[in-house]
Amino acid sequence: MSNSNRRNFLKAIGGVSVASVMGLGSSRAGAAVKAKVVIVGGGYGGAIAARYLKMAEPGLEVVLIEKNKQYVSCPLSNTVLAGFGKLEDLTFGYDGLARHGVTVVHDTVESIDPQARKVKIGGGKTFDYDRAIVAPGVDFKWGAVKGYDEATSLTIPHAWKAGPQTTLLANQLKSMKDGGVVIITVPDNPFRCPPGPYERAALVAHYLKQHKPRSKIIILDAKDKFSKQGLFTQGWKQTYGDMIEWVAAAKGGEIDAIDAATRTAISVVGTKYQADVLNVIPPQHAGQIAHTAGLVNPKGWCPNNPVTFESTLQKNIYVIGDASVGGAMPKSGYGANTQGKVAAAAIIASLRGVEPDESAYLNTCYSLIAPDYGISVAGIYQVKDGQLIEVPGSGGVSPMDASAAYRKVEAAHAHSWLRNITAEMFG
Ligand SMILES: Cc1cc2nc3c(=O)[nH]c(=O)nc-3n(C[C@H](O)[C@H](O)[C@H](O)COP(=O)(O)OP(=O)(O)OC[C@H]3O[C@@H](n4cnc5c(N)ncnc54)[C@H](O)[C@@H]3O)c2cc1C
């Protein structure tokens, strides 16, 4: 296999492995690049991009600006609601990135000036850049569900950014009476982690089955179908009987408003659903800084060149992860990881004045239905006619009717996936 083919193959199977970014260093050797890259946001996308830039080009000055001192992983945070996961095990610091030579700054980026190539943080300090990566994740469209804003989320949790919100929801479940009703409201696409709400329903059911078995979970959905639907529906039934009820948009599941005082969700057709615990997953858009920096389209997501993830609206800024439009890719941590690696390689190519390699992206999303019951969806994505599409036949979902042993292995894979990906980011 030629070097170039091998590089492309490795990308396709590994979601752009170390070899491909490092391969860029050897196969396109030239003078070491001296330049400055500023990264906004140290989550699944930004952290890995920082690490890969530094690995591929140790001479690069890489500055990562992240508002929080610790990162709490959303993946597997539903296990905290189930009662068998701990937030401490999902919490990571940035010392590892600093050890790899990344300059980590903990502050909030307030503005980006794409013309002057400057990033300004809260304290007023500015950072110059040759290339910037913007990876702020999502923010919520407060008010899109009437009656639901940031203040309301302090009593009616979304738990769609892991941390105190996860704890709040877990505590409300603990305080709920047996026989209570838990309502989870789900927005229309696109939103962070398409299978996440349905995994949440399953893992909340796991907790309730043990502690409050007369309780019920209602999912009010703004959609008529959802990720891994057959597998979830089968898993819910096998494991929890009739505890979980899913109400599709066509059956009036889409909500218009909530009444926080009575924990009531009001659907667009006027039906009122009163909850003992109400979990509102609000509609989302790119993180606020992407809006401030002029990186978003009218729908609130960041369009970019799918080969490099450079913004089509602002030159020299690469937007990766949930904030980007992302084509056919779901908004996932794994997706953000592969996009971070592609953007790192593309930045190095552009600093060297060479064409970027052909890119390919990988995604696998595991979901847990119970501690020993895992399912997954996987896909490889490539650029075709300027669009990021899923390569036909490249992935798929776990088989229906699989054995308990099969589901157990997939559950173990979910945990090892998290260990590996976070070690790569923060180790
Ligand atoms: C319940 C749940 C379960 C999930 N499960 C999975 C799963 O099993 N597998 C999977 O692949 N994905 C999963 N996801 C999705 C995954 O969490 C996201 O897709 C992923 O975090 C996106 O990475 P990102 O880098 O774009 O954003 P994030 O990881 O959110 O990182 C963005 C970072 O930017 C920082 N930031 C934002 N604005 C600024 C600013 N102005 N200045 C400084 N810093 C800033 C934030 O503090 C944050 O640390 C799940 C999500 C949820 C909610």
Strand order of the largest sheet: 5-2-1-9-19
The tally of beta strands, per DSSP, is 23
CATH top level of the largest domain is: Alpha Beta
CATH topology title of the largest domain: FAD/NAD(P)-binding domain
Q: What is Rg?
A: 22 Å
Shape: globular
CATH superfamily membership of the largest domain: FAD/NAD(P)-binding domain
Low-confidence stretches: 1-23
* Overall pLDDT: 93
Q: Structural class, from secondary structure content?
A: alpha/beta
Characterize the biggest β-sheet. Answer: 5 strands, parallel
Roughly how much helix do the residues carry, as a percent range? 25-40%
Characterise this structure.
This protein has about 425 residues and is an alpha/beta fold. The protein has two domains: about 5-140 and about 285-360, FAD/NAD(P)-binding domain; about 150-285, 3-Layer(bba) Sandwich (FAD/NAD(P)-binding domain). Helices cover about 30% and strands about 25% of the residues. It contains eleven helices and 23 strands. The protein has helices at about 5-15, 20-25, 45-55, 80, 95-100, 165-175, 195-210, 230-240, 290, 335-350, 405-425, and strands spanning about 35-40, 60-65, 70, 90, 105, 110-115, 120, 125-130, 130-135, 140, 180-185, 215-220, 245, 255-260, 265, 270-275, 275-280, 285, 315-320, 360-370, 375-385, 385-390, 395. Strands 5-2-1-9-19 form a five-stranded parallel sheet. Strand 12 (about 215-220), helix 8 and strand 13 form a beta-alpha-beta unit. Helix 2 (about 20-25) runs parallel beside helix 3 (about 45-55) and helix 3 runs parallel beside helix 10 (about 335-350). The protein is globular, with a radius of gyration of 22 Å. The two termini are about 30 Å apart. Flavin-adenine dinucleotide binds next to strand 2, helix 10 and strand 20.
